[in-house]
Fold this sequence. Notes:
Layout: H1 7-21, H2 23-30, H3 36-57, H4 67-90, H5 96-102, H6 106-117, E1 123-124, H7 125-146, H8 154-177, H9 183-206, H10 215-243, H11 245-248, H12 254-267, H13 273-289, E2 297-299, H14 309-318
Helix pairs in contact: 1-10, 1-12, 2-5, 2-10, 3-4, 3-9, 3-10, 4-8, 4-9, 5-12, 5-13, 6-8, 7-13, 9-10
Amino acid sequence: MPRKATLVEWLVFVALGVAWGSSYLFIKIGVETLTPFTLVAARLAIGAAVLVVVTAISRQSMPRSWSPYLHLVVVALLGIVIPFSLITWGEQSIDSGLAAVLNGTVPLFAIVLAAMLLVDEPITINRLFGLLIGFAGVVILTSPSLVGGSGSSLQGELALIGAAAAYGAAGVYARRFVKDTRPMVSATLEVGYAFLIMLVLAILFGDPLATRVEPSTVLSVVWLGLVGSGLAFLGFFFLLGRWGATRTSLVAYLLPVVGVVLGFVVRGEVIGLPVIAGMLLIIGGVALANSRFGHRPLIGRRPPQVSGEATAQARDRAT
Length: 319
């Protein structure tokens, strides 16, 4: 049985949920004065600086072969450059709370992609029903825009769904190709690569020198960079070392709730019935997909039949 969590661990868990869940609010604030590429590049500059300092202080050893460096470029594109850009662009036309809820579908996309690309992640009964329930929530959230009865842009909503798909692809790719690199090193290289890419894009397409800097601009960039892209990673790795990946991943359930509440409290965003129903269905679908029930495989690649020591080693790599 897992050991009982300490008060400090629970506080870090809640703080991590607030840090990542509030990012949607500060993105919404940031795009009022910054172009999407400029905002993303600015937050990554701060986040990369924090991670580089911590990695250097903790004397993390870097990979000795070229393979992890090359694979982490792909992870940076799928896990940061593409989703950050889509989220920031999408929030120009949709509420921050809705963005947080739509991005809560990341685990559902990961389930589908993992079944296609990994040999030990088939779609099981509980995952299938979790997918159906979760995507029913997406249909409810986006249906008002389809019929023109919402103030949100369908293109913005699709951008957030695309960002969730990119996040899911990044997780699956990293698990297959970057599984032997230390998590802190992976995060530092990933954020560093993403910053360099976004800096080029911001210079070419974002016109950062023409930015109108206001107090809200500084607040959003500092919060997103220091808290959302820097300190949050440290809190994540703190919990990862004590709780493991499965228990730590439960923070995903906090993000839509935090995003919706902050959007309502700070910006007065309307929490309509479609938002509430969609959020509950998405969270419920993700919870069912990650439950311990209905684990009979239905769809996906099957691992070869092995026995003895080989079976134990394969199981160890999967955990």
